[in-house]
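(Structure overview)
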Amino acid sequence: MMKKCLSRALLIALILLPVGIAPHPDTARAAPIDATAQKLTAAEAQSDFDLMRHALEEAHAGLYRYTTKAEMDRVFDARRTKLNRPMDKGEFMPVIQETLARIRCGHTSMNADEGMETAMKNARTFPLRVLMEGTRVMVMLNDTPGDATIRPGMEVVEINGRKVSDILARFWPLLSGDGDIETGKRHDITGRFAKYYWWLVEQPGEFTVKARDDAGTTVVAKLAGVTDAERKKNQNPVNAAMMAGVGKVMGWSREDLSVRFLKEPEVAEIHLRYFMGDNYPKWVEDTFRMLREKGTKTLIIDMRGNGGGKDEYGAMLVSYLTDKPFRYFDHIDIKTIAPSFKEHLDWDANVEGHLRDGTTPNPAGGYFVTAKLHPGLAEQQPGKFPFLGKVFVLIEGGTFSTAADFCAVTRHLKRATFIGEETGGGYYGNNSGMMPTLTLPNSKLEIRLPMYEYWNAVSGDEGKRHGTMPDHLVEMRTADVLRGVDAPLDLAMKLAAESAPSK
């Protein structure tokens, strides 16, 4: 079963519009975007909202996983009251996304239509790429052609007179994530800050940016916005040190599946971008055969930025870290096998037959998925060449979906030490699997609808509202990357040396 395979690929960044924050009086706004100008009557907006609510209540397996039914009912009712007048699509979409975000499910998303994607691609957006460090917004790259005032490693303090804290407060309620996990939301903002700003705050052609360096010195610069094409083309010399640092930290791993020796043959590192690819099973078997043949003692698995993929591939990686049978999924729930709103779904007529054959009734309502439909529910056997040495797993907010499941089960089996930040995906599981697209007929908005509620075969004190927690909390910081330092990896190497037997 394929889960979400993009690194926290919530598409808010392409579909939300500027509402709720008035333009700064000294900031010029761009003309309205034609792609957002579609008018909806109150009745049309309410009809689309009601269909979405009905679909979620009937088919979203984890609708009440993190938010009670009473709470969701209040959310639905409160958001619907906003649809009491004619409005354009730009006003309607944030109402939908605010509703979805309250489900607290990182796989539930709203997709952009072609017009919105084109508008976003051609827009002149905030010209700095950033990294979230807690609540601080740090400059990673300056994408202007030649400004040298704002340098990588500085902290952004204000944009067009708005405090960064106020800007983040505008973003936060519209970000979806599993449970109470915040690292995944920060990961989203890191990758999409410019797009969020353009849609949710304002659409200026120029940005007055106030930034602060490590010494506390504040600078101000007026920077022109850049398009996606310009962002890729511009080669600002001020980024040279950061680019060199990024090359040292991440340059070795340019493939989806990578392995190297940090100290041959004792210490090896694996980096997985996604759990995908037809060559994955052979690659895993060949890699672990090599580790055995070389007598490797310590394995570091880098799961940072891994947004998921095939469930079976996550279970397969766990199988190469143990010599005993184990459980991967405890159970998978599904509410319906025959949605009443199929005419609004990209629904394959053959799906229902497979669901009937591969599920059993749940006495509490709905159905249980069986191992016939999903092999991850069966007892899993050890891999051909299990690695039984010391294992370190590097994690952060971009560790999501199948990658988070792998971490949870590996933690439960006590087969690794975790370094970094809390995973972006839930420790006890997520809502994903079968995820048909619901198209709302009037607005044409597309809603991704997770129909499987996964429960991992785990126990522990992480809590059912959080991800796998690190044994050693280590954040990736711009100051470290500038120096070419990968602090989580360095700690793993230090711990590996300390645990190595003396000669």
Observations:
- The longest helix spans residues 42-59.
- The radius of gyration is 24 Å.
- The chain has two domains: 23-28+123-244, 249-432+453-496.
- Residues 132 and 189 are 7 Å apart (CA to CA).
